[in-house]
């Protein structure tokens, strides 16, 4: 018992049978020295040699320990470094106490013997434990070594160091002395656990049967290093080597990991770059913990083995994960890599990097150890996702069997740089590569994207650069959002993808290009908006197939300029005639599959050599243009639209259009109100309507024009606003739907030419502009189909070389003027109107009709209701009425104007004349006055020589103003019965079926201050011829009044001028009837076959009155005449007065009756036929 400062030197000694009380043969404690050499210590009941914990200095050499309980027992903090001594039949050869080593300790023994660790050994901070080559350390159950200090275990190839189970008899002998009764097993002891600042160097070591409780045989954590080389870690009940998460430094080379649960487990943030170590028989070769990498980490392993993730791997901002060439990373189900920092995966052509399904045995061995029981499949693991500022570089990588949850294999949603070159992404449940954000640069070159259930490549942002890709057997080859460019180079190859290229709905915000080869197509999978300031260029040969109900909305610029050899296509996704076949699109394409290309606001579009088909769903048009931007369509075909092939919406759009074809659309072109369409080069075929013109208001300058082979269909009322202009080009055929019209408040210019007149006609009129309603001969045009061209307010119009027909619905006119603007019509045909061909309600501004024809109109050829219409050299044929006017309108019809087969040539509606009106019609025709007409005070009606006025039954002409009818002897003015065929022809078109008769019409009634000047006028067949009352002047000369039922001339009262001369009164009830106080002095007047020639009413004469008449005729005084005081009745010579029975003349004033010898004045009986003829028309019946 050597204690305190005691010391001993034992050489060639034998110590036997000791151990009473102390339990040891030699006990060493304290600080003194002990040296034992060449000695034998045997049969001690306890420890042959016990070195207590403490500060002892101890040396052993060439000793023999036999038959002791423990040969040597080493207390903690004590060294035993003796590979020369032998141990025989001890229960334990070398017993190592557990505890904490706080100094530098050395352990070593011959390889035939075991050093048995009997408790946890902790190497404290600053302390070290050195283990000699060839040493065998065996651990009792659940024991371990904890390293806070340093472990140096440097074996040699021929003298390895062993850390093993106490029961392991394969090395160090039968340490537990039980022969073969017990065997070592995984988890027999715990671990070597390197912690905090602890470090270890293990060379040529074997660690076996550890892993109890700690789940690993060798554990490394903390900040210091571990170097393990040429070593073996086997049979661990857990991880052979576990490098825990942290900041550890770890070196591994040429090691062997066999038959462990996990060969190597790497905690997050730990590197393993070892292409030399081997793995065999482990449940898992290399296990990668999930978590966050905060530093620069390297992973690399021999390609025969797999590194298997066990959770999501996050590469933090500022951190880097580098994968070495040849490395195989296998992912457990639903794991992923999240990159906020940088991922560097640069393989080589001969050593690619694989990131794959845990079950994929084709690379990295059978990682899950199940042979062929399981196989990899699409969607096993999640993704590699680049986020925030994350970046990645993939060269010669193979990435497969991912896409779970994230629906993509590699996802870039970061602002960092991304490149993938010479790589493959395959078998993804979703998109192979998805780029949500291309900022920072995104390159995809010389890469294969195959067998992905989504897209091979899907990018949602512009800026992706592609080159020389192989895109094979994906659901979609390349998928992108609308705001991204795609320019497929000549080397890129597509094969057996369900869809080659698919563009998702969205908004183009920048300058974007779409270009693909013609053997594939772009499927536009939803609506695309081109924002203001942005542009989309579609290159020649590109085929765009559009999903149902999708559209282009163009607020920016769309440029689609194909070539004759390489046109651009916009079509139904089911259209297999171009761009290959899209699987599942088995039904044929049809009109209205997709919506439209809508160019709106400031948006503009340019189409050249394009083929645009099968649009029109919902929007009702394929190209729909509105707003202020430009549109150009040329050399293009727009076909199979459910609606309008081209619709120019109402607005202020600029539009260029030529050499196009519209085929099998509902409407070839639809022009919104306020928009122009002038194109005589474009052709139309198989459309329901070729050119559809919307109704509405034109507010600017607008032009319409097309080839005369086709029709422009007006489908609603068209209003030309004040200040606006509608110009219609020569050759245009304007057809109207039922009840539509053009209303002109501004200006309408319709200028045709002799070879290319302009037509305004019925939709059903197939004689011009083709079969516009597409019914063959089932329907025919008819009068009254459309309404009119109405010129209102200040509206103006100019018609030259036009044909206007089949109008009149509702408005009962073809052209209607009720404006103060000028209207001119020349060399124009107006026909088949249900009503008036041209009706003028207001002639202010002037109306000129020159060399035009009005034919087969159910009303009047021209009907004007106001003064100011000039008609020259025109022809009126087969109308109900040739010209119709109101009484207050002048009629001045020249001799070059002709009438034929009208029911009535000229018809004047009854009414009031309030201005200065002139009626003049050629002698070969008649003016028919339809009813009672008055000439208002201060107004005047002048009927020119030769004019024949025929009046309707019961008509009166009432004169409160002035009536002037100055005929000539050769061309008198006639006012007569409508049925009078003796002048002006057969006006009522009944041949001789009717004849004129007395009393047909009423009278000419000149009253109050009304005046009349009548010369060479013939009035016939009225009830009363002329009734003159009032104070106005009256002149009747050289005229004839005949066949009047009552009084041919009735002079009721008057105090002003009265001039009568050389008139004839024939076959009237009364020739002249004079009211009291009225003079009659016309000794040239002639009377024939009247009931009474001159009938004088009885009464009081209160003014100066003159009676004068040829002696061949008589005044019949019908009642008592009294000449009042101060009144004078003068009777001219030769005058005959005959009195009714019992009537007489009473003179209180003055009577002047100065006859002559040859012309006496006769006062006689009414029945006296000897003077003044047979006045009572009874022959000799009475005397």
UniProtKB/TrEMBL annotation:
Pfam families: Beta_helix. The keyword Signal applies. One of its GO terms (cellular component) is membrane. Residues 789-909 form the Right handed beta helix domain. One of its GO terms (biological process) is cell-cell junction maintenance. Keywords: Glycoprotein, Repeat, Signal. InterPro entries: Beta_helix, PbH1, Pectin_lyas_fold, Pectin_lyase_fold/virulence, SJ_maturation_regulator. Transmembrane segments: none annotated. This is Right handed beta helix domain-containing protein.
